[in-house]
Design a protein that fits this description.
The complex is a heterodimer of chains A (about 260) and B (about 200).
Chain A lengths: L4 E9 L2 E6 L2 E5 L3 H10 L4 E6 L7 H12 L6 E4 L5 H9 L4 E4 L1 H5 L2 H10 L4 E8 L12 E4 L4 E6 H10 L4 E6 L11 H10 L4 E4 L5 H9 L5 E4 L10 H10 L9
Parallel strand pairs in A: 1-4, 1-12, 4-5, 5-6, 6-7, 7-10, 10-11, 11-12
Antiparallel strand pairs in A: 1-2, 2-3, 7-8, 8-9
Helix pairs in contact in A: 1-2
Chain B lengths: L1 E5 L7 H9 L3 E5 L3 H6 L3 E3 L9 H5 L2 H10 L4 E4 L1 H4 L4 E2 L14 E4 L9 E6 L1 E2 L14 E6 L1 E2 L6 E7 L1 E9 L2 E4 L7 H12 L8
Parallel strand pairs in B: 1-2, 1-3, 3-4, 4-13, 5-6
Antiparallel strand pairs in B: 6-10, 7-9, 8-11, 11-12, 12-13
Classes of the chains: A alpha/beta (about 260), B alpha/beta (about 200).
Chain lengths: ~260, ~200
């Protein structure tokens, strides 16, 4: 049976893993290659590395980090942040990524999704969507809006509609981050996740709000997520992907165990 | 352990090469050098993306060279689209023939409420006697990402179920294929690649 994936996310700044508290006060949390290997050893089904402050100057740092992280990693490895062109993507693949995640650049130039998919296959293109409910709308979930530039800039695009376009253009997966839930550790936005997951035929990765094992069980059930991203949770109580998956298995969720 | 990796510009080879090197192999990559195929001890054909990309194998003469190598008994492993190429073809690109080593065609997953592509870790049901999958226990997980798949036949070495049972691995003599990505399947995947690397070419009877 296909299992629900637990994806460990490493936020990287200047070649180091960082933890933020409410997006500020970045704390050094180690070397990306070491941390990725640890998560894989401890049962993560996939590793995502996000260059959270990607700049043009940072590109070489990113590529070097990707190369070092990929070297001994034998689970799927996705890299995002600062990928603006198909050439950028090609360099990240060359450095050892299996998938790239595109966000702001894809909204600015949706053909980027087509271009990367054509050269590297749909399975290699993850479209990341930062979403916020629209509290003024009649249906705040259905009318949730897409934000770009690290959640700073509204786009006027509806989340479900953009997810559908991304799929049509050849995206292989959607990485959906709820900005309302992100950092709260109060649970994923299951309604939002389900609205996107039901609207597209490609897998949806839920992100934002993980705090407890129950939150994961909830987003895999009610939220209809195919995978869930876990970042800071491994620093707060749940010791590893393996222990998370062991608890999920007890709750009846199909996960990869032993791992 | 020398191994020739065929590059037909269908996606990225980095992960496959990395896994082979990790296992102590010395991969050599070619996209058109037929003499390397003639001298190969083992051949790996990776591949992600669209079946149409295998057109390049015909255009470069690699198809004929690989067919001859297989006839000489050289161990051959196709991965993902590389496995599908071993069949008659794929409904993904109906005009593009495969190698035809296995007579059936590959087809898309049937319409259902499940998502396509099939992405993620799924379990293997290994049939007895597979050399490629030696040591893989029932239910071990490997990583898949695909929308098309081969049918379950007498040559199927392992099945996986998603929407319906399909061929997760195929094996007949020195010709093998895996629908999943062994280079991305943790310890189980490395074990399978290691089994392949230990196979020796032998003259066909």
């Amino acid at each position: 049976m296909i299992t629900k994936r637990i994806i460990a996310c490493l936020d990287v700044h200047g070649g180091r893993v960082v933890k933020g508290v409410q997006f500020v006060d970045l704390v050094d949390a180690g070397d990306p290659a070491t941390q990725a290997a640890r998560h894989a050893r401890e049962g993560a089904d996939e590793i995502v590395l996000l260059d959270i402050t990607a700049t043009h100057e940072g590109r070489q740092t990113l590529l070097d980090t990707v190369r070092r992280t990929a070297r001994e990693l034998f689970v799927p490895f996705c890299v995002g942040g600062g990928i603006r062109t198909a050439d950028d993507a090609a360099q990240v693949f060359e450095a050892g990524a299996d998938k790239v995640s595109v966000n702001s650049a894809a909204l600015k130039d949706p053909m980027l999704i087509d271009a990367i998919g054509r050269s590297f296959g749909a399975q290699a293109v993850v479209v990341a969507i930062d979403a916020r409910r629209d509290p003024k709308a009649k249906d705040p979930v259905r009318d949730a809006e897409v934000f770009v530039q690290g959640g700073r800039k509204p786009t006027g695009r509806r989340v479900v509609e953009w997810a559908r376009e991304a799929e049509q253009r050849g995206a292989g997966e959607i990485l959906l981050t709820s900005m309302d839930s992100d950092g709260t550790r109060a649970g994923f936005d299951c309604e939002l996740t389900a609205s996107v997951s039901e609207a597209v035929g490609i897998p949806v990765i839920a992100s934002g709000g993980a705090g407890t094992v129950d939150h994961f069980a909830d987003v895999f059930g009610r939220g209809r997520a195919d995978a869930a991203l876990a970042a800071s949770i491994f620093h707060f109580g749940i010791s590893s992907a393996r222990s998370l998956k062991e608890e999920l298995a007890k709750a009846g969720v199909s996960v990869r165990l032993p791992c | 352990m020398r191994v020739l990796v065929i590059d037909y510009k269908a996606g990225n080879l980095t992960s496959v090469l990395k896994a082979l090197r990790h296992l102590g192999a010395e991969p050599i990559v070619t996209d058109d050098d037929l003499s390397l195929v003639e001298r190969a001890e083992r051949i790996v054909l990776p591949g992600v993306g669209h079946f149409q990309a295998t057109e390049r194998l015909d255009a470069t003469g690699l198809t004929a060279a690989i067919r001859a190598a297989i006839a000489r008994g050289v161990p051959f492993l196709g991965i993902c689209v590389g496995m599908q190429w071993l069949y008659a073809g794929s409904s993904e690109a109906p005009q593009q023939p495969g190698l035809g080593h296995f007579a059936e065609p590959c087809t898309r997953f049937a319409e259902s409420s499940e998502k396509v592509p099939h992405v993620g870790w799924n379990s293997l049901e290994v049939k007895n006697g597979s050399r490629l999958l030696a040591g893989v226990e029932p239910g071990e997980y490997v990583y898949f990402t695909h929308s098309y798949k081969g049918p379950v036949t007498g040559d199927t070495a392992a099945t996986t179920s998603y929407i319906e049972p399909f061929a997760a691995a195929v094996e007949r003599g020195n010709v093998m294929g895996v629908q999943f990505h062994p280079e991305k399947s943790g310890a189980t995947g490395l074990k399978i690649l290691s089994n392949f690397l230990e196979m020796q070419a032998k003259e066909a009877e």
